[in-house]
Specification:
The chain is α+β, with helices and mostly antiparallel strands and about 180 residues long. About 30% of the residues lie in helices and about 30% in strands.
């Protein structure tokens, strides 16, 4: 079950079923050897657990939009468990939801990403008043300022007469710097 204190990804297939089309996990029937107690109590615990949970959807608790669940009293996020189940290895970096929907764990929506790449895929901030990601009004000169961030550093791209022109400049730079992780809105 555990290798050097880390849950073995191959073991996940003994306790969970993943549907890559829906992105959902389901609990499988558990054998009595997965329960702590000995003898008849162990079988009773397995029967009780299976009658309540086997076949039901797993990882249904939400925190900050992420699906979470317990495996042997430890909290795991569904997207990381799914990555481990599908690849045979726990993710080395972050697992990014391409569409920014943290509850959408369909396999086609998940990809590994560095912190910087994950930041490139962020949605437009709620406080944004221009309507365009990376565009803000520069109050001193009355022009629209275009900026883009990469690796935690903000880069100034210039001032423009309209927010649309500033957006055009930001999007061109985003395609170049952020590649497939770049998000326009």
């Amino acid at each position: 079950m555990f290798i050097d204190g880390v849950l073995d990804p191959t073991f996940l297939h003994q306790i969970l079923r993943y549907d890559p089309e829906t992105g959902k996990l389901f609990w499988l029937t558990r054998s009595s050897d997965l329960f702590d107690d000995r003898g008849q109590m162990q079988e009773s615990n397995a029967a009780r657990w299976n009658s309540r949970w086997a076949g039901t959807e797993a990882f249904t608790a939400l925190r900050a939009g992420y699906r979470r669940g317990l495996i042997f009293r430890k909290i795991y996020t569904a997207h990381r468990v799914i990555w481990a189940m599908q690849t045979g290895d726990w993710p080395k970096v972050l697992v990014d939801h391409m569409d920014n929907d943290r509850g959408n764990n369909r396999w086609v929506n998940l990809r590994q990403a560095t912190h910087s790449q994950n930041q490139c895929n962020k949605r437009m901030l709620l406080a944004n008043t221009s309507g365009f990601k990376g565009v803000s009004l520069h109050k001193q000169n009355g022009k629209w300022q275009a900026t883009i961030s990469l690796h935690g550093k903000q880069r100034h791209l210039g001032y423009f007469d309209s927010p649309e022109l500033a957006e055009h400049r930001v999007n061109a730079e985003r395609r170049s710097l952020h590649t497939e992780f770049g998000r326009v809105a």
